[in-house]
Amino acid sequence: MKKQAAKRRKPARRKRTANARTAGLSASDIGAIRRRLIESLIEDGGPEDHGLEEMVEELLAAGLDASDDMPDPEMLSEFGDALEEARINANGGDPGARETLETVRAVIDKAARRDGIDPRMLMMLGQLFAAARLDIGDAARASMARILKSAGGDGLKEDSFPSFLEPIRQASHEDPFETYDKFSSFIDILPTGHKTAAVAALAAGSDALGRRVAVGFLLHPDEHVALAAVRGLAGSDARGNLDPESRRRIRMIRDWLAPARRDALDAAIPTAEAGAPRGAVKLLKTMASVCDGSGAANLYATAKDGSRYLMTSLMTKQTGVVEALLFDDLPKDAVRSFEETASSAAPTSEVSLPTFSRLVQLALGRNLASGAPLPFALVRTLETLGLETLVPDLATPDEIIDSLLADVAGSDEAVRDRRASPLDDDIARGWFEAGEEVDAILDTADSPEEAAQALLESYLPRRRAFWASQCALSALATKDRASRHEVWKTLALVGRDVLSDIPLDEIPLMRQIADTSALAYFMNG
Prior knowledge:
The chain has helices spanning about 30-40, 50-60, 75-90, 95-115, 120-130, 140-150, 160-170, 175-185, 190-205, 210-215, 225-240, 245-255, 260-270, 330-345, 355-370, 375-385, 395-405, 415-420, 435-440, 450-460, 465-480, 485-500, 510-525, and strands at about 20, 280-290, 295-305, 310-315, 320-330, 350. By secondary structure, the chain is of the alpha+beta class.
């Protein structure tokens, strides 16, 4: 019997809300990205190394010849948490985290190419990478395909799926959203043919939970998998097995799909008989954060549900909605704590429901335009809030800015004076550039001043649309808040300048972004 992987020191974990239902992530990226920027400005070196390379090598060395060779579940959980933290730090501009993830992938690729990973461990790694929203890589998938082929498993049959689903159902307490996250992570490493067979069988089967889970695969990034869900659900519909809730959710999702996928769904499942809207909770407050340096922002809603409360959180990025969380059965003090935490992560303002709804629709529009997949949990979030009819808004940054400034006089001297200086508000204090291309430019400079100038000349001109979008969305998120400074006007006007032909080094905000990026790089180097 091979030696079991040794138990190792735990990496630091983020706290989870006790009564939270999550969409596969444990926390918002925004706070982590902002904290990463602050740390890079005040500390020497990067974050503590959680030894991901060492952990993956221990997992690959673990033998699974017998049940007692299984790695400690706690160790697998630690590895998953460390993967997610590395992804967040990498997204936040940490080159060390990006290098660590590349090394981990290289270790897995090397072992996978020689089929040196136990099939069960390969499945576990696939689930952990998928849950952390990381791609395990083609080498691992090719290895799994060879393993299945050698075992005579070229395809999966529909009658195998009731038992296949059972352990996931037991762990999920009949929640289709939780079950979707588990099931999609479970099959992520499988070859496309196996995934489509799994989803089609799930959708067409006699299991009611399976059909509700299959609805989520209409949003899957792989077109083959999504169309397999369409075919399976159409079969269920033809047999009269689609329940009103599934039909209502299909109708809701339909408006978010790209035209080709929407047409396929319309041809397979008539939409005229959509189920009645779900009863919504009583909304108390809606809030929106400004965008952070990576383009991420959060939308929050607080509602009364009987004698208790619930909160929802949507994370949006430049590609659209990426995360939807529902925290339910909360006492009032937990709501207060949640709101305080949200405000500390990024400047956050209370907004009207129309503004909240438009920010969601703009995010849906970015999903549609970018082709980025939407999380299935968004369905639950919006139906809980009574916002099931929201559809994508494809407005461009200049169109958003024009609508905001429609009634603002261009000769307003006070506004023009504010526009002439970098924003003093916390909104832009964390705006920065990061990534491999940025690092390559900054690495050629001998000082922060030289590095900032290099960004202004060779990189930021290509980022005008991105920073104009940051200004436009942040202006919309702050427009409803009571403030004598009316910072939203400044943001909108600066966004208009960024989209114009004004040289970037003549726009103080862009100079501020370049300076912050260069200083963070040199302090962290």
